[in-house]
């Protein structure tokens, strides 16, 4: 554990997907009942976190779309208030994260989950980027006007597919994300959506909280063809700590997934597509949390398990944030070149 503690302390540990309670989020500067707050991050050595402005998929009428857009805007503004500029820096680039780590400060980042909150207006992405968002998850559960989701919502009238992947609006949104330097997140997307986004995007795409279908046949996981597409296009899968994605759920109960199961998925993805295309995330406070990594205070257990599997300091840095920082730099460079 001494080696694990030293490597963990030196690594820019980044969790790419953490939900927040809304409305009435608790004060994250104090100990809370949530899986992530700043005291837990400090105890666990989790140095950076992408907090999510999440909007559930609802009816796509004027009222529903306006409510989703208003909620996403407000959540992004709130996330910025979690940084105080001294012990917690609000970061929008890889360089800012690295500078915060060097200064001994935690990194607060933000993103939007569910493109439905655009309310069919791609120009809203510029506002979100100005507010600091680094990526957009194209869909959540349920199809939206941008794309088909991996898990349709029959209660909203969804069939198996609506667009056959990306809609024309969805393609416009991918191009606008590229223009602004935001990443395209395909977690929750249907396979057709994910494959088309990978082909269309001028910047490698990311699945910020997904696992491997070969090890757990869940509609939210990526199959081998999807993993291979990430390798071919320079993309990234962030293996996540959600039990139902890691091991099949038995009838009437939760799966017995642990950190070992999570790193089994890491091992599989690394073997299939290479260390440069794999990362880590928790989906804390959005369903994530497993024995061994039940909250942010237990983050070092993930590093310890990686070391036990034979990963060294360089590989652990890539998994925790190096690969994601690479994508952020590519996105920023592509935007500057336009």
From TrEMBL:
**Pfam families assigned:** Peptidase_M19
Superkingdom is Bacteria
Q: Which residues form the signal peptide?
A: none
PANTHER family per record:
DIPEPTIDASE, MICROSOMAL DIPEPTIDASE
**What name appears for this protein in its UniProt entry?**
Dipeptidase
Q: Which species is this record about? A: Roseomonas alba
């Amino acid at each position: 554990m001494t080696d694990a503690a030293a490597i963990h302390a030196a690594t820019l540990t980044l969790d790419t997907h953490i939900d927040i309670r809304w409305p009435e989020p608790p004060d994250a500067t104090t100990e809370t009942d949530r899986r992530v707050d700043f005291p837990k991050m400090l105890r666990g050595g989790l140095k950076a976190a992408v907090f999510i402005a999440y909007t559930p998929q609802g009816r796509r009428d004027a009222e529903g779309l306006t409510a989703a857009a208003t909620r996403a805007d407000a959540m992004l503004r709130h996330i910025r208030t979690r940084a105080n500029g001294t012990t917690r820096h609000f970061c929008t680039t890889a360089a800012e994260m690295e500078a915060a780590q060097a200064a001994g400060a935690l990194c607060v980042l933000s993103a939007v989950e569910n493109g439905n909150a655009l309310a069919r207006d791609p120009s809203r992405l510029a506002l979100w980027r100005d507010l600091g968002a680094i990526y957009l998850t194209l869909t959540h559960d349920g199809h939206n006007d941008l794309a088909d989701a991996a898990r349709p919502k029959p209660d909203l009238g969804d069939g198996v597919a609506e667009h056959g992947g990306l809609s024309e609006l969805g393609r416009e949104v991918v191009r606008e994300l590229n223009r602004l330097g935001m990443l395209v997140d395909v977690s929750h997307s249907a396979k057709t959506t994910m494959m088309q986004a990978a082909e269309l995007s001028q910047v490698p795409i990311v699945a910020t909280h997904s696992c491997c279908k070969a090890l757990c046949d869940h509609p939210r996981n990526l199959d081998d063809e999807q993993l291979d597409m990430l390798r071919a296009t320079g993309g990234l899968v962030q293996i996540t700590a959600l039990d139902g994605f890691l091991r099949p759920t038995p009838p009437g109960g939760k799966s017995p997934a642990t950190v070992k199961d999570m790193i089994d998925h890491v091992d599989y993805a690394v073997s299939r597509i290479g260390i440069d295309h794999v990362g880590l995330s928790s989906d804390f406070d959005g369903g994530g949390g497993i024995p061994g990594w039940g909250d942010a205070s237990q983050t070092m257990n993930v590093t310890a398990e990686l070391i036990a599997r034979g990963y060294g300091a360089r590989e652990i840095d890539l998994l925790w944030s190096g690969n994601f920082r690479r994508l952020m730099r590519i996105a920023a460079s592509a935007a500057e070149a336009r």
